[in-house]
Design brief:
Layout: H1 6-27, H2 32-42, H3 49-56, H4 60-72, E1 76-81, E2 84-92, H5 94-115, H6 120-136
Length: 142
């Protein structure tokens, strides 16, 4: 069976997902990168700005204005590390957690609508396979 290349198919799907998510993010007053940061911090595994940048594939210097904006809006907390005052420790504030939950719920609802026509077994297999492939791709790729 002839098919498009993976890059073509994933690119098309990626563009559709971004177009679907943009109005949701705009309604909540957060950028795509802001949401990426909130999502990474919601996982609790990232504590420093350098570790965050590496985990999401962002340049450290370009990440600073995003963190500044989120901090000014009281969505994240950024404090000096008592062990090394040059290092900033990051965490979500309660308003940040609430915003992340609200945005994620709307995005998941839109994803459910997108995948709704697929049989349940196909949907589960797609999500499981996509998660496995995503784990194999370093954050900085792409």
């Amino acid at each position: 069976m002839e098919r498009d290349d993976l890059g073509t198919m994933v690119g098309r799907l990626g563009r559709r997902l971004i177009a679907m998510e943009q109005p949701i993010l705009a309604r909540h007053g957060v950028t795509m990168w802001g949401y990426v940061v909130l999502s990474a911090l919601a996982g609790g595994s990232v504590r420093t700005q350098a570790a965050l940048a590496a985990s999401i594939g962002a340049d450290k210097t370009r990440l600073i204005p995003i963190l500044d904006d989120l901090q000014e809006r009281a969505l994240i907390e950024r404090e000096p590390d008592p062990a090394d005052r040059r290092v900033r420790l990051l965490g979500l504030s309660e308003p940040g957690r609430a915003l992340h939950r609200a945005v994620r719920a709307e995005i998941r609802s839109a994803e459910d609508a997108l995948l709704g026509d697929l049989p349940a077994a196909d949907r589960e297999a797609f999500l499981r396979t996509l998660a496995a492939l995503a784990r194999r791709a370093p954050a900085g790729d792409g």
